[in-house]
Every structure is written in C-alpha cells, then in structure tokens.
Amino acid sequence: MVSKSYTNLLDLASGNFPEMGQPRERKQLHRVMTVPGVISELDDDVANSVASDVPSSVVLDRMIIVVNQLPVKAKRRPDNKGWSFSWDEDSLLLHLKDGLPEDMEVLYVGSLRADVELTEQDEVSQVLLDRFNCVPAFLPPDILSKFYHGFCKQHLWPLFHYMLPFSGNHGGRFDRSLWEAYVAANKIFSQRVIEVINPEDDFVWIHDYHLMVLPTFLRRRFNRLRMGFFLHSPFPSSEIYRTLPVREEILKALLNSDLIGFHTFDYARHFLSCCSRMLGLEYQSKRGYIGLEYYGRTVGIKIMPVGIHMGQIESVLKLADKEWRVGELKQQFEGKTVLLGVDDMDIFKGVNLKLLAMEQLLKQHQKWQGRAVLVQITNPARGQGRDLEEMQAEIQESCRRINEKFGQPGYEPVVFIDRPLSLSEKAAYFTIAECVVVAAVRDGMNLTPYEYIVCRQGVSGSECSAESSGPKKSMLVVSEFIGCSPSLSGAIRVNPWNIEATAEAMNEAISMADSEKQLRHEKHYRYVSTHDVAYWSRSFYQDMERTCKDHFRRRCWGIGLSFGFRVVALDPNFKKLNIDHIESAYIKSKKRTILLDYDGTVMPQTSINKTPSSRVISIINTLCSDVKNTVFVVSGRGRDSLGKWFAPCKKLGIAAEHGYFMRWSAGDDWENCGQSSDFGWIQIAEPVMKLYTEATDGSSIETKESAVVWHHRDADPGFGAAQAKEMLDHLESVLANEPVAVKSGQFIVEVKPQGISKGSVAEKIFTSMAESGRQADFVLCIGDDRSDEDMFESIDNAIASGILNSSKSVFACTVGQKPSKAKYYLDDTADVINMLEALEEASSPSPSPGNSP
C-alpha cells in the first residue's frame, strides 16, 4: 500500500493534475529531529510548535481513528471482479468527525468485514485510502479467528461483563495462544497506523477492547505521540479484572495512552482501583480533571457517555412515514399499549428476563391482559457458542408459553421479531411504543433509549410523528447495570434479576399520568439532543489537546521490555543525577554537606529487616572519615533505633524524628530541638488512632518520643487510604488547639510538634557551618517522600539568604521519578547506593575529628 503522503507525487508523475477550482489536498510537512533535545527548542517558528497556543498556519492537525472494523461496507461486484464500497451510516464512529474541527482531516484505520484475497489487498487499500480516507488492516484468517472469536469474545467480552470462567465448559480456560494472536493482531493494526502517521502533527484515537495493547506498540515507536483510548464496554471491578492472567500487561498498555475514556464513573472507578491495587498508582483530581501520574506523564481519565447522531435519526424519521407506514403499525396495535424491546441476541442483554417480567405483569395486573403487548426486536447474534444457543432456545420457549397462556383471538402478548431491521423500520416501532424496556444484565452503554426518545419527539413536517398534534411523551424502564442509566434520571431504573420489581416498573410506566410522562420526556430530550455523538467527540478531543499540551516541552525516553515498556516524561530542568558529574564536583570541593534520608533512600521501603547492611555502614563510615565532609542521616525514625543501627559510624551526624532530636557525632549528646516539652496532646491523639487501628486490618501505631505515627502500608490499599484521609480530618479537629502538626505521608498519618521538619534540620546544619567559617561548597541532599521536600525547599531558601552560594555544587535529589522540588532524581535505592559508592571511592579518609561545628 502507498502512504497518502506520496499519492500527490504519483498523480503528478502520471499526469493526473487536480482540476482547477478543486480544493487542494493538504500536504503533511514532517518535522525531522536530527539532534537530541526538546522539540520546542528546535522550532524557529513558535507558531508551528505543538507547545504554542497559536494555531499553525502551515501544518494542520489530523485525527487518526483506529477501530476494529472500519465504518465501511464492502461488497463483491456481481461479476465477481473487484469490490464496491460505501459508508456504513449506522456506525457511530463514522459520525464522531462531526465534533472535530472542520479543517481537521480524519483518517480511519481498521479491518474490513469481508475476506479480501491477498492479490487484491493492495488495490483495495489504495481505493479505500483515496476515496474514503480509510486504511484497512488485513488479518490472516488464523490470527483473525483467534483474535476476535478467541481472545476478544471468549476472554475479554465475558470477563468485562462479569462472567468468570468457572469451568472448562463454562467460559473456557485461559488460552495463551489466543492472547498471542490478540497481540499479533494489535501489532498489525500498529503497522498500518505507522505507515500513514505524521507523529508530530497527528492525534490517534483508539477504540474499544479489541485494541487495548495497541498504545504500547505506538508509544514504543513515537514517545511523544498524542494518543487517546476510549473503552465502549464496561470495565469490571478489580475483583473480576484481577482474575485475568494478562491483567498487568493490558493495564500498562492502556497507560501508554495520554487520555483513557469511559462511559460512566463506575467504569473509570474500577479502572483506577485496578491501577491502585496492581500498580500502586493513585489518581488525583485537579480542577475537575482526573489524572494518574505514571513515570512523569499524567494520564488523563475521561468520563463521558457517547451520544447518538441526531441528524441521521431525524432524517430517517422523515422517511419512516412513507417507507414503513407508521399508520399501519398504529392500526395493527389499535387499542393496545405497546412496550418495546430492541436488543442484540446476546447472553448479557437480559431478553428472557424481560419476557419473564412481561409474564409477571400480565399475572399481577390482569387489566393489561388483552391490552399490553411486548414487541421484542432482536438483532442477529455477533458471537457464537453453547451459552448463546441455550439462551435462544429459552427465549423461544418463553414466547411460546406466554402467548399460549395469555393469548386471545386477535391478541398476542409477545410479538417476537428475530431478524435484522433497518433504522427506519426500528424508528417506526419507536414512534408507536408507549414505553421502551431495557433489561440488560450488563451493557457498556446501550443507545436504544436515546433513539427512542428522539423518535417520540419526532421532527417538524412529519405527519405521523408521535402524537404530532399534542405534547410529546415517552417512558423508559432501564436496567441499572447499563451505561446510559446514570444519564437518564427520569427513567424507572430496575434490577433486571428482580422479575417482580421489573414487572411493577413496567406497570408504573404505562399507568403513569400523561403530564408526568411529558415532563420526563422533555428532560430526557433536552439531554439527548445536546449530548450527541458530536458533543462526545468534541469533548474528548478537547481533553486530548489539554492533556497533551506539554508533550513537546518535556524530555521523553522509553524504558522497559515487552508490555513493561513505558515512556518517562520529565521537565527539562528535572534530570537524572549523573554519577560522573557529581563525582567530579565532589573531588573539586573543599567543604561538603551530605544529608541522607533513611527509609526509601538507603533502605528499600519493601524491606522487612530495616537494619542497614554492612555495605551501607562501610560507605557511610568512609564518607564520614573524609575531613572535608559533614554527613547526616535525617530520618523520621526514633533516636534509639538510629543510634543503635549506626553505632559503628562514630563521626556520623543523626537527626531523629524529623529533627526533634539531633547530634553531630556519636560522642555528642542529643540536642532537643523542639519548642515545647509538653506532650499532653499524645493522650488525645493515641485513642483516636486506636479506633482506626481496630477498624482497619493491617494498620498499626508507632509511638515515638516526640510523635505518634499511624501506618497503613499493610492494609487494603483503598480502605487504608480512605481511613487515613478520615483520620487526618478527625485529628486536625480534636488537636486544633494543640501545638502540633498533623501530616500525611507514604502510607502514614503522623502527629508531631509544630516547627519540627527536615527542612529546619538542613537549615540549622547550613547555618552552623557558615557561622564557623566552613560554608559548604558541595551539598548533596537525598530523600524519597514528602518530608524530604522540606529539605529541598530549605536548600533554595539557604541560597536565597546567602547561607549557601548559588554558584557552588548543589545536588537536591529525590528517589523515584515524580513531581519534586529537587532538581535531580535517582530511580531507586540501588541507584543511591551506586552513587554513594562512587563518592566513597573518591573520598580521602582521614583520622581528623568529624562533624562537630
């Protein structure tokens, strides 16, 4: 296949010049980066930079929409020579371009619903690209079968709809060959995208569960690609999702997107819970936007239910009167109250539950016998399997039983239509139905209620629109387990498994006063008509722009293998600490200050035994033995533990309990740096913490000399975090008049005296050294959590006040790539030890006395 970037040259070469007066096809101008750096720094014209707020006058953005199936119908010509193609007007993805900017080109990448011979694929690809702006992905038959009917329909689809494979016959066991086919299919889609993409100017919008690992393939190739993903199915709770053997691979692949969209908050909440429990990622909400911090990138979470295409349905309504003669349907059901169901033939659509509810309605409310009719339209099944066959047989049996039991001459309580209907024919049924019933046990969205509301509203000029001479009215009975339920506040929501309650809801809906039906209809129509597919796509695109606005201002690089691949994105001023650089500065300096946090810095957070290793003791001893060095361990731990652990380090300074206790060397007495020795507040704080400890399994209390700490690292992540937040508020309230500070940190809530922080320790050390004529010309400060940010801030303050010289070597370093006041980072404790080993080798041990000022 030839990329569209080259089609104009081929046209010119063959003499096919564009006609005069025809709009010229936009050319993509590729920006080639030939030197490492930040792209925005390389642009001569700021207007052409993606980082600029000024729209480019040269390069226009383009949207590449990647879907499992293209919104195109393919049909072999009658002579069997070639193909004819047409747009699939029923595809919502075709109409989402209505919400994108008018001058934005839209390119579709996806598979065709037809088997195209290998020899025809190049020709078909070119025709689709030239005439439809579509790029087909042709999957080999063996991969297609395992990918779609295998992994998608046997594993993902049931699991995402809360169906677990309890046995080999019920759902089937996990088959790794199906997963491999899923990955292979996603790779083929990525190759088609790569053929046509201009990574600096294009947006990529990937759709649905068929392509959940595609973001990794594209991100691996283009670190700064602007990419969104929208899931059209439910996302299950973490208890269900975590049963998937490839759960982390899929999560990490999705997180390579910039924006991930869901229909409802429930689906988004489940996804965020999985990220928290499996990857340790916590989301933040800022100004109404939800984001996950992932290796320096903020992955946006978008909650926006899709809408319908208003123009398409309204145009169909104008034809429905002529084509399907709504009048005849009214005549057929004259004197009857019509309840309507329109569903796919699917095990999750609850069709039989609806039939059982109809049976219950006729039993409990006999006035509706002979008057109420349920018209059930089922679209052809897209899946296959024994479960589906059993369900179809059950539905047929229920229809037969109900019609035999309650049917009368000229009256059939259930009219079952088991064939595909056009949108115009369905619109005729929507128009005459008094109520639509959706009883799905699980459904990603379901737009049937939206279509019904618009059809009941009708359009001006349509003679047979729903009660065109009077006020419009409609009623909905919808399952609470479908995606559209939260947005239809006037609908009667039901648990479809509760047959009796569903039957009562159906009776309430058709018995309701017309005035109430009108009010509910007006409320629904206002929402549906304003939140259409164009509104949905416009909102998603705008959030993609906002989420990606800093892409070209940041330094990005990829790390990790296979589905562990991710892109690290950092502010240009936030750099990994280069060992050679710091070693060089260390050797040149004369008076050095080294401040080390303990837990998470020289001791891994996950380590159960917190005693420092002999290697750590040896490194610190060597550093302390250098007469040029002043070395401190600054920790939140108690002085007894730290004093015992670091007893071999005679010249090491220790600041315990965030600086409440401090000594310059082992031979010095501990200084009390607190402003008050009244600890009566502990009697208030401890009972509160005990309450939360009893209620939170896995939590514990640590009582220090100057502070009380509540730990919840071993508690359930979600519950522990919620309890910590509640406790923080509780303690702040009861300790409002006490001279203490209540702080939250990594899996802790701490109460400590006011004015005590690691920042004050650093300030005291810098000031003391400067006053004794030993102003530091080399500062290394390393920590990993919020309390260490105070140290980083104190360095900036010391430079501003002249205690430290800004021209000297200052290295404020956080552990882990995350937002920080530090200018440098190291990945983990192993990196920290490696760096300290380099400084150890560069040190000049001396018997001179150590840290005392």
TrEMBL record:
GO terms for biological process: trehalose biosynthetic process. Pfam families: Glyco_transf_20, Trehalose_PPase. Its EC number is 2.4.1.15. GO terms for cellular component: cytosol. GO terms for molecular function: alpha,alpha-trehalose-phosphate synthase (UDP-forming) activity; trehalose-phosphatase activity. InterPro entries: Glyco_trans_20, HAD-like_sf, HAD-SF_hydro_IIB, HAD_sf, Trehalose_PPase. Keywords: Glycosyltransferase, Phosphoprotein, Transferase. This is alpha,alpha-trehalose-phosphate synthase (UDP-forming). It comes from Salix koriyanagi.
